[in-house]
Predict the structure.
Amino acid sequence: MELPVSASQVKIVCARSAGLAAVGEIIRLQITLIILLLGLGVGVLMGLLGIGGGIVLVPALVHVLHLDQHMAQGTSLFILLPPVGLGALLEYRRQGQVDFRAGVLCAVGMLLGGYAGSLIALPMPSKTLKELFGCFLMLSAILLWRKSRLDAENDRKDLKLNHG
Amino acid sequence: MADGLGRDAKTLAVAGVCGIAAGMFGVGGGALLVPLLGLFLGYTQHRAQGTSLVALIPPTGILALLSYAKEGYVSWKTGLLLIPGLFLGGVAGGIMTKRIKPERMRQMFAALVFVLGALEALLAR
């Protein structure tokens, strides 16, 4: 990728000009680009898999942008605040794959559960939290794999009934 | 549905568990919600994913975010820069699901999450 500046004269973009004076930070153009592309990539996964993107975002923030584990998690929660999944949701709705009643109930449960979870995580050391995060991801994966195999079995039974 | 209330209670319980994980790990909770909706409430993968997206539209993480912000654990600028890409990418991903079988999607999802999880747990510093 060709950037408009050489590596030796790193261009500084003033945050104030972007109307973000409240943050009062100065960031480099390259990092901005990386972050924008990162967002796009995670967004594709989000729509493809029906997830909020946090499970991909948190590791990306830690390893690509070198944020601390707590900082990455807090930032991820901020990113998930606006309805970034709205576009993906509309695609699912067009295909009739949405249960709105259950979705709203889940939102209520997660609002309260989320607060409890943050109270548990904040006093933890970053390393412990990271290890637990990894275990959480693996648990999600195992649950999903089991479900996948159950469904495959059911599909075979249906096939037998229809053709037998 | 005769057992509508029992089902609602079950949904709330599942969501509460996902919420605790979401607040603890700074995620939306969809990663856990999708498989749990499938396992406990019998949703197909596509329907579980669509329903999970509904739960992620309202700002469910706001209470958790406030606790993180109080401790200074939020990088606001990075967050703002990530949002537009996420939205556009999300639309693209939603369109792509039409061409992929549920079985295949589940496997992709599970594999991705497992590898990420193993890396996080093993490389924790």
Remarks:
- The beta strands of chain A are 12-14, 26-28.
- Residues 6-17 of chain A have pLDDT under 50 and may be disordered.
- Residues 126-163 of chain A form the longest helix (38 residues).
- The CA atoms of residues 158 and 164 of chain A lie 10 Å apart.
